[in-house]
Design goal:
By secondary structure, the protein is an alpha+beta fold. The protein contains one helix and three strands; from the N terminus they run ββαβ.
């Protein structure tokens, strides 16, 4: 199930911004008529996967490091903007 409805901005290798629209007939709504936070995290992960796919030549592995400025849960009639950006990182491996 694709949870991202639109991509608003895309700069391959730099950033992507998309939106998840929530309607009252969304099959993921819980008993309180809210979209659970886990569904929003999944939408963010799908947006990140699409970002990696279109960023040819960039690293193909990613780690979701931080989610900031998010408000869970999301109610019907609202769109939630999701954004992902590439940040340089250094991988350290330790052997015991």
């Amino acid at each position: 199930m694709i949870l991202v409805d639109r991509v608003h901005r895309l700069k391959p290798g730099k950033l992507i911004r998309g939106v998840k629209c929530v309607s009252s007939c969304d099959p993921l709504l819980d008993e309180n008529r809210c979209l659970p936070g886990t569904a929003m995290v999944e939408a963010l992960a799908q947006l990140g996967a699409f970002f990696l796919e279109v960023s040819a030549g960039q690293p193909s592995q990613a780690i979701l490091v931080e989610i900031e400025g998010c408000k869970f849960p999301t109610r019907p009639g609202r769109g939630t903007i999701c954004a992902c950006s590439a940040v340089p990182c250094r991988v350290c491996r330790y052997r015991g």
